[in-house]
Amino acid sequence: MDLAQRRPPRLLLKWLIPLAAALLSAGVFFSVPLFTAPYVIILMTSILMYIILSVSWTVFCAPSQYFSLGIAAFFGVGIYTYTLLKDALPWAPFPLLLVAAGIGSSILAFFVGLTTLRIKGMYFAIFTFGLSELLRHFVMWWEVNMTGTVGRWIAIVEDIVVYRYMAALAVITVLAAYLLRRSRYGLALRTIGDAESASEHVGVNASAVKIAVFAASCFFTGAAGALIATRWTYIDADFAFDPIRNMFTIMMSLFGGMDILVGPILGAVAIGTISDVVLARLPQVSRLLLGLLLVAVVLFIPQGLAGLFTNLKWSHVKDRVLAKLRGRHDG
Amino acid sequence: MLVRVLDVLIAGLVMGGIYALAAMGLNLQYGVVRVLNMAHGDFIMLGGFGAFWLFTLLRISPLLSLIICAPLMFALGLLVHRLVYHPIRLKSPSISAFEGYSILASYGLIFILQNLVIVSWGGRLKAYSYLASPVNIFGAIFAANRLVALLLTAGISVGFYVFLSRTRTGKAIRAIAQDTEVAHLMSINVDRLYAITFGLGAVLAGLAGVLLSTMFPVSATMGFSYTLIAVVVIVLGGLGNILGGLIGGLVLGVVGAVVTDLQPGLVMVAFYVMFLGILLIKPTGIFGKKGG
């Protein structure tokens, strides 16, 4: 983390390049369906969903070192917010409902943060660990005792439409994560992760920063949940709050590497493809392998795949090449 | 009315005993080794399966299984500590980095243990019947196995408490919990005691599992909720506070029984509300010390 050496980014670098990259990738995502089979679209939608989940997870957890184990909870709340609002306001436009679902998750994240982010990180991990289970129990109880149902029907949305929205949301998520990392909040979050009391001494309002960024990051988790749910037609509490999504997201982020933005994207693409193509036929064995892989990553490459590459620093390579050109050999 | 109160109270104490036993193991692992082992419930599950197979295949009484499972669980605990948590400790730059990474690793461990069991023995509920004969206590009727479990959890907890407060090893473990560096200076072999403590945590989980299997069916996915309960209990009693955890376990057990009596679907929710209340009012736990 060479913050001190980083020059202040020029306007071009700060806004235009990320914006151009976002537009370009959006263009690519939108033109892909013109060439590919429907199966590829479905696979890509779920990979894009995991990109959203893992990027929005790492954007808070990696710099602050507060690990949330409750991704499935915010995901499920997004789904239920969407479903309830869709039933109540059938005329509301689709994008508006997605935004509302994201806000629903953010509100929950705000209250979770308000109660647990102000104390030690351990409590945050513990609390979010059980949050999806709590909501699963509660929603199930509510549906059986209050509404007299078990699950709910969701009006199906065409695969290609879901794909387009997911691609757009993924681009927005990555862009937002990129901008956040370079902003005052991103820097503040990193100082909190390095030494929380020291960061408070230099004037960072640690609790406020943690709560704000956590709530904002959960917006994308909730919206992604609502979006993917339109592909399922029927949801119940067991499915909406399935803890396997925690596992996948954490696994992807760690495997890809949490220190740079490319890491979780890399992890989501790699593990998403492998698990869908190779392992979906043997669910138990694949879960077992995922568990082994997670432990192995923590033990052997805690920096993730991206970490392996950043160790080969570009500046080192450049220096070596320049030295060679000048005919000097200083090792 | 009296019968109903007795019903709820005894059921609550029985479950509370199990919760306390399970929480004591996790408390020890977190308080001393600094590992918040999210796979703790899965060690409970393994204990339950051990008793189930010993009973169904070899007709071995669960009481004997307690004695058979304890060293096996201890060995498993040592193995997991040696293969997973010890290497993470060596690599971690700071104690908080170690805590974070060990949580993530234990999350992976959950999936490993659960799915190993599902792959080898299937995902269905498994049960056997042991001492199910009814016993009448002032009109409240209970299966004898509940009372046996209650007596045994009390016995094991007291025994373990005495071990911690009276024996040399127990005192060394408590010394590490208080101040690792000073304990090291007093020539306590910290690494060895980390391994022993983690193993003991696994033993306590396994014993809780054996006792649970005498009363309820076991399944591969049962661990998750017991991890949660153990966590709530130790937060209630104060992280690292063994006596607080014992009382916290009994409190949780009774609350659970009362809620089960009124609204069976809301037990977990009730536990969570208590958890939230503690975090809001007194994060160090009811019996926790200031700043602990």
List its traits.
heterodimer, A: 331 residues, two-stranded antiparallel sheet, B: ABC transporter involved in vitamin B12 uptake, BtuC, 2 strands, globular
The end-to-end distance of chain A, rounded to whole angstroms, is 25 Å
Shape of chain A: globular
Number of strands of chain A: 2
Strand count, sense and barrel status of the largest sheet of chain A are: 2 strands, antiparallel
Tell me the structural class of chain A: mainly alpha
Helical segment count of chain B: 11
Rg of chain A, Cα atoms, Å: 21 Å
In round numbers, the mean pLDDT of chain B is 85
Q: Could you name the ranges of chain A where pLDDT drops below 50 across 5 or more consecutive residues?
A: none
Oligomer: heterodimer
**Low-confidence region ranges of chain B:** none
**What is the SS-derived class of chain B?**
mainly alpha
Give the H and E element order of chain B. Answer: HHHHEEHHHHHHH
> How many structural domains can be distinguished in the coordinates of chain B?
1
Straight-line N-to-C gap of chain B: 42 Å
Give the SSE order of chain A as H and E letters: HHHHHEHHHHEHHHHHH
Strand arrangement, major sheet of chain B: 1-2
Description:
The complex is a heterodimer of chains A (331) and B (292). Chain A has one domain (11-242). Chain A has helices at residues 11-31, 38-64, 71-88, 94-116, 121-147, 159-182, 184-194, 196-201, 206-229, 237-240, 244-256, 262-279, 283-300, 304-310, 314-325; strands spanning 151-153, 234-236. In chain A, 76% of the residues lie in helices and 2% in strands. Chain B has helices spanning 2-33, 40-58, 62-91, 95-121, 144-166, 168-178, 180-185, 190-215, 223-237, 242-262, 267-281; strands at 134-137, 140-143. The A-B interface holds A 65, 67, 69, 115-116, 119-123, 125-127, 129-130, 133-134, 137-138, 140-141, 144-145, 243, 246-247, 250-251, 254, 284-285, 287-288, 290-295, 298-299, 302 and B 36, 38, 84, 87-88, 91, 96-97, 99-101, 103-105, 107-112, 114-116, 118-119, 123, 224-225, 227-228, 231-232, 235, 239, 263, 265-269, 272, 275-276, 279-280, 283.
